[in-house]
Amino acid sequence: MRGAAVLAAALAVAACHPAPQAPPPVNAGPISAEPVTLTAADGVQVAGVYTKASNPKAVILLFHQAESGKDEYALIAPRLAEAGYSSLRIDQRAGGNLYGVNETVKALGRSTLYFQAKPDMEAALNWAQDKKLPVILWGSSYSASLAFLVAADHPEKVRALLAFSPGEYFDDKKLVAKAAANVKAPVFVTSAQDGKEIDAARDILKAVPVAGKEQFVPKLGGVHGSSTLLRAKNPEGAEDAWKAVMAFLAGVTKG
């Protein structure tokens, strides 16, 4: 009898304090991907892929590194969508076939100088305005640097900026820092586990006048550009980098 009484009491307590359920996924609905063609201000046709989350909190514009293309983000965009972020990844005119065919470069017949890709990035920014969502810029290597210029030129259109391995990659070795001084949005920077890259990112971030800025310095792994988030490229450090990225995105899209 005593055992039955103890069991009854335990069941009563359990009824008052049910076991917590696992939180529902942020993006429970379907994820879609569709090709997009943008037209830059100078008439160049820019190929892209739009990955749509079912209940997006923001749209992220994904820009690739040198010798690369939109498929630098083929594995990154779906993970962002699962977390509630739609994205557009494009083939800038300064790129190559590092992760697959860069359709913009193929159509042009050549890759251009880094700086000449800025109109492609601005075309993506203009495209995003119709989505009626916060717009976040995300750059890799040279495009991380150009993203500071785009954010400085269009402060009213940019909610936040993520820069993976930014540096002074142009003839004017103060160009990016000067642009950073005019950025009004929160900024996240990271880089490879390399002293020169870390210092370059720190110097640019130092120029940003807003309080909401942070630098993630990898303790494990860490490779150049956005591929630091790919386990195949950065098996030891990819997940730590993802945690830092997701925390920043949550902070700039809350409310």
Shape: globular
Q: Average pLDDT value?
A: 91
In which order are the strands of the major sheet placed? 1-2-4-3-5-6-7-8
Helix fraction bin: 25-40%
What is the straight-line distance between the termini? 54 Å
The biggest sheet, with number of strands, parallel, antiparallel or mixed sense and barrel status, is: 8 strands, mixed
Helical run tally: 8
Order of helices and strands: HEEEHEHHEHEHEHEH
- Tell me the β content: 15-25%
Q: From the alpha-carbon coordinates, what is the Rg to the nearest angstrom? A: 21 Å
Residue stretches low in confidence (pLDDT < 50, at least 5 long) are 1-25
Q: Structural class given helices, strands, pairing? A: alpha/beta
Total DSSP E strands: 8
Which helices and strands, and how do they pair?
Elements: H1 2-16, E1 32-39, E2 45-52, E3 58-62, H2 76-82, E4 85-90, H3 103-108, H4 118-128, E5 135-140, H5 142-153, E6 160-164, H6 175-180, E7 187-190, H7 195-207, E8 213-216, H8 238-253
Parallel strand pairs: 3-4, 3-5, 5-6, 6-7, 7-8
Antiparallel strand pairs: 1-2, 2-4
Features:
single chain, 255 residues, alpha/beta, eight-stranded mixed sheet, 8 helices, disordered N terminus
